[in-house]
Write a structure and sequence with these properties.
elongated; 2 domains; 7 helices; alpha+beta; 4-stranded antiparallel β-sheet; about 15% strand
């Protein structure tokens, strides 16, 4: 009985099938849920609530599986804290595009208030399928880090140049425009930071 309660909470299609007297789809993974053994890692995502269209239900099912995929990818990569946002965007983009999906099923139910849809997706994160993706993410992360490091190096060079210019200008004007020069230096540093970062 406990398993049925959990299924209803995770997959609204369970309750809708019961109310509509519909049979469970002939796909074992719908009822088995997440599986992980001998290098196989299958993850099931369900739309969390009935949707008004099949596309909305699919988006919701992919949204359900996305944090679990990200957790597994992040665990495999061991991303640094500053890289997690970039990695999360890449994984979310791939999940939304259906990159990891091996199967999916949409179900429609006619209710007194109208037609509703649910969707379930099966994602395969087995090591043989995940390793090439991980290698690609690692390469993208290295490229991203190099770009960020280049921006910071550019900002450091710009800041050094601006501060040298401030010191030279202050020396040539014998400190007469110190307040104005400081404000101009600060404004240029902020504009430079915005432009480079």
């Amino acid at each position: 009985m406990r398993a049925a309660v959990v299924d209803m909470q995770r997959d609204p299609a369970v309750a809708l099938r019961q109310m509509s007297h519909a049979s469970t789809p002939d796909k074992q993974w719908i009822t088995d849920g997440d599986q992980s053994d001998f290098g196989t890692r299958l993850i099931v995502g369900h739309s969390r609530k009935p949707a008004t269209s099949e596309q909305e239900a699919l988006r919701d099912a992919r949204g359900d599986v996305e944090p679990r995929v990200l957790a597994i990818v992040d665990d495999q990569i061991g991303a640094r804290r500053e890289d997690r946002g970039f990695l999360a965007e890449r994984v979310a983009s791939d999940v939304r595009a259906g990159r990891f999906e091996v199967d999916r099923i949409a179900e429609k139910f006619d209710r007194p208030y109208g037609r509703v849809w649910t969707e379930s997706v099966l994602v395969d994160l087995s090591s043989d399928k995940l390793q090439p993706v991980i290698a690609g993410y690692q390469q993208e992360l290295r490229s991203h880090r190099n770009k960020v490091d280049a921006r910071w190096a550019g900002f450091a060079a710009l800041a050094t140049l601006i501060l040298c210019g401030y010191g030279l200008s202050n020396m040539l004007t014998r400190g007469y425009f110190t307040g104005r020069l400081r404000i101009m230096t600060l404004v240029v540093l902020v504009l430079g930071a915005v432009a480079l970062i």
